[in-house]
Each structure stands twice: as structure tokens, then as C-alpha cells.
Amino acid sequence: MANIQAFKNACIGVPLILPSSSEYPAARKIYQGECNAVPLAIVQPETRAQVQQIICAAAQNGIKVTIRSGGHNIPGLCIQDNSVTIDMRRIRHVGIAPDKNSATIGGGATNLDVARALEAEGLVTPLGLVATVGFIGWSTFGGYGSFMNHFGLGKDNILGAEIVNAEGEVIQADNEMLRAIRGAGGALGVIVSLRVKVYPLTKVLAGSLLLDVCNFKPFILAMEENAFSFPPALQIGTAIFNLPNGKRNFRVELLWSSPNVEEGRKAIEYLKSIAPPVIDSHLQETALSSLITAIDEMIPPNIYGHNETVSIPRLDNEILDLVNDFLDQMPKDPATVLALHHLSPVSPSSRDGGVLNSSFPIRFGHTMIEFIGSVVHREDRPTSEKWAADFRDAFRATGKALSETYLSMTSPGDRTLQQVYGEEWEELKRSKEKHDPNGLFDLVVPRIRSGLS
Ligand SMILES: Cc1cc2nc3c(=O)[nH]c(=O)nc-3n(C[C@H](O)[C@H](O)[C@H](O)COP(=O)(O)OP(=O)(O)OC[C@H]3O[C@@H](n4cnc5c(N)ncnc54)[C@H](O)[C@@H]3O)c2cc1C
């Protein structure tokens, strides 16, 4: 207890919430409903100087920190026992460079903050499709989402970072640190802001198709066959959800990011010719902020349990037959979902020149599959988690899945970090030893020194 009092004394002027405070339960609330961790304190810095003050106070008092922004780490690791949570949500500025080629984004900004600020200037950058997810947490671990076929994954758009390091200094990340940040987030320090590429785009066209589940296989096979010929401006996301009436719904989310709308319509007509949609929302011009807000509203505000994931270079007949078998057994909880993130082989993130130096190990077209075993109804948790884990294992048993997985969707204990990062692991460990020798950030995702996912 003595050290938290000394920490508090050193944090004069920094908003700080102790477990005894009536504000604590709300400040501690995150997306993962099962997380019972009770941090020693939650600090809410408003400036980079306050972040420095917190880091110095933590280091002097031997207290480890975790970092929280949007609160959507699925296992809930942004808050932990016996540590101080640095809640970055008060640092959420978005500034656009005078040449309009880049933007600087505060360490606690959400996808929605970024979308709104950029669209006011006729600009976009790749973003996650859920408004309330933190931009730094989304982009630095990889960042699958909008425009990834056109402009690349989130991590391939990171140009620079301002960090408060383990010494409490404000530094601009050098190439070695940027390499770690692009894939391994805040393992080396608190990211006060990221500088990212932005692109001129005033019109976003978005829509969705609802298809019969029996069309899942032919639809995905056609996507695979046309992977090289679809225009990169067409982003396709697919998912199978449970509807409230107990039926399943195969949903195809479409996003078109080029002024040449006719080309987009043609590509979508082709998709519709593979399998006629039961419902076609038609492509509509919309603001990205409205789209990601609408998607957010379809997602439960809290869940219990974990997701599983595999990444796979190609979805073929054998794999899709396996999917059909597991869809037959899909539990009915509304949060239990199969979601596929298709990174096209023509994306900049799959090509030489578009992939920046990073610790993210997969640098070619692939599909990142989320077996969402989380639930809204707590009592459904064992059934949904077992379905997701069995599904994941069956994929691996085909020998066609990559051994590297997407950290943000990997359930705790499923993979070691060495497996997650593959060939990037040794270099990442070296950077960690160099920049955080005393382990101040050891609890921050990814927990490199423990090696645990
Ligand atoms: C509903 C939902 C939808 C999702 N959709 C997608 C998606 O479409 N595509 C995709 O790729 N992923 C997606 N994810 C995964 C999500 O991107 C990651 O879980 C992400 O890390 C969450 O970031 P956050 O800031 O919201 O979470 P937090 O729990 O607040 O942060 C997660 C971790 O990010 C690091 N971090 C955050 N901010 C900073 C900072 N300023 N400095 C240093 N480190 C920091 C810390 O290690 C922290 O523990 C989704 C997750 C959920 C729950």
C-alpha cells in the first residue's frame, strides 16, 4: 500500500481514481465482462507531460503499468491486478498536417474520433469497423478493416510515433521502435500519438448483402478465384451471425473507396450473380463515421469469454466443407459469430513496397478468421468457447493454417508469442530488453517478457 500512496503523491495534478472512489467502477469498465481485475489506481492523463509524470512515479515506486484506450482487448488485459492502469481516453486529438498527407492521432482516440476528424477535411485512413475500438490498439497490432485492400492494414500506414519511454522521456520512435510498434503496440512505451498516412476521399459507398447460409461456400470460392482481379477499392468482409429468431444469417459487408463508382457497381453485380441476396441494402453514399457507428450498434456493449483465430492463405474446398460442418453446430448465442477478414493479394500490405518494416509476421494475402466464442448470456460461455476452440483445432489439423496468428484475436494461452510473431520474435525480444530493461511495461499487451499471448 505504501508504494501506491507514494505514487499518488508523485502524480499531483493528474486525474487519479482509487478503488475506494465512487468513480472507480465506471472507469474500470471494459468490453470484456468477465474481467475482475482491480488495478491499484486508474490514472487519466490529459497531456504528454502527465504521462511522463505517471511513468516516473511508477518507475520510482516499483509499480507496473497497463495501458487502456478503447477497452476492447478481448481478454481484458488492459486492466490488471497489482498495477496502475494508464487510461489514455482524455488524449484523443486528431490533427491533420498542412499538406494533408498525414494525421497525428492522440493515444486514446477511437476509430470514430479519427473518422470524424478526417472526413471533415475530405480524407480517410484505414480504420477498424467498430466505432468505439481504440485506434492505437487497433492499428498497432495489425489493423484489419476498412480500405485494407486499397491502402493497406492499419500498421502499414503508421509513419511515426511519439512515445513516453520507460525512462519517462518523450521521444520520437526511431526505425527500430517503429518496427516494434507496427505489430506489437505499446510493449516499449506509452504511445502519446501516432502519425499515419491519410488519403483524399470524399465519397464512401457502403452496403451489405444478406445471403442464404448455403451460399457461403460458392460465394467464398468465387472470391478466392477472383482475388487478383477484384479492384482493390472493393473491401469485402463476410460473417455468419445468429439472428434473434434463431436463424443464421450470412452477411457480406461491402465498402467501395474510389470515385469511380461504376466500376464498384460492376464488381458488386458480379458478386450478386454468384448467389442472389435475400436482402440487398444497395450501395449508398455514406460517411465512414456513420457506417462504423451503425456497425458498433449491432455489437453487444459487453461480452463474456474469448475468441479464437487462425490465418490461412487460401480458402479451398476442403476448408469450406469444414466450415459448413461447424456452422451446423454453431451455438445460438447472439455474440457467437464466424467472421472473416479477407486481405487481398493486391493490397499494398501483400506487396513489396507497401509493407513497412514491422513486427507483424504475415506479409501476403490471406484470410484472418475469427471464431467468436464470446457470449452475451454468461451461461452459454462453455458451449460457445468449446465450439470456437474445436473449430480452430480442426482448421489447424488440415495443415493449411499459418502458424502465426493475429494477436488481438488469439485467446490467452492458445499460442506462445513466439508462435504469434514467428520470425519476428527474436528481434522483438531484443528491442524489449533494450528499451524496457526493468520491465515497467511487462504487463502491457503483448507481454513479451512472459512470452504469453
Ligand atoms: C467488438 C470488437 C471489434 C473489433 N474489430 C476489429 C477489427 O475490425 N479489426 C481488427 O484488426 N481488430 C478488431 N478488434 C480487435 C481490436 O482491434 C484490439 O482488441 C485492440 O487492441 C483494441 O484496442 P482498444 O484500445 O479498444 O483496447 P484496449 O483494451 O484499451 O487496448 C488494448 C491494448 O492496446 C495497447 N494500447 C492501446 N492504446 C495504447 C497507447 N496509447 N499506447 C500504448 N499501447 C496502447 C495496450 O497494450 C492495450 O492493452 C476488435 C475487437 C472488438 C472487441
Give a quick rundown of the structure.
This protein is of the alpha+beta class and 453 residues long. Helix content is 30%, strand content 21%.
Describe the structure.
Keywords: FAD, Flavoprotein, Oxidoreductase. This is FAD-binding PCMH-type domain-containing protein. Belongs to the oxygen-dependent FAD-linked oxidoreductase family. It comes from Aspergillus pseudoustus. Pfam families: FAD_binding_4. This protein has 453 residues and is α+β, with helices and mostly antiparallel strands. The protein has three domains: 2-90, 2-Layer Sandwich (Uridine Diphospho-n-acetylenolpyruvylglucosamine Reductase, domain 2), CATH 3.30.43; 94-200, Uridine Diphospho-n-acetylenolpyruvylglucosamine Reductase, domain 3 (2-Layer Sandwich), CATH 3.30.465.10; 204-409, 3-Layer(aba) Sandwich (Vanillyl-alcohol Oxidase, Chain A, domain 3), CATH 3.40.462. 30% of the residues lie in helices and 21% in strands. It has 14 helices and 19 strands. It has helices at 2-10, 24-28, 48-60, 111-119, 135-140, 148-151, 175-184, 216-225, 261-274, 288-298, 317-328, 381-397, 417-421, 425-435, and strands spanning 16-17, 41-43, 64-68, 83-87, 94-96, 102-106, 123-124, 158-164, 170-172, 190-197, 199-200, 204-211, 234-242, 248-256, 279-280, 284-286, 307-312, 337-343, 366-372. The strands form four sheets. Strands 12, 13, 14, 15, 16, 17, 18 and 19 form an eight-stranded antiparallel beta sheet that branches. It has a five-stranded antiparallel beta sheet with strand order 5-6-10-8-9. The longest helix has 17 residues, at 381-397. The two termini are 30 Å apart. The mean pLDDT is 95. Flavin-adenine dinucleotide (FAD) binds next to strand 3, helix 5 and strand 10.
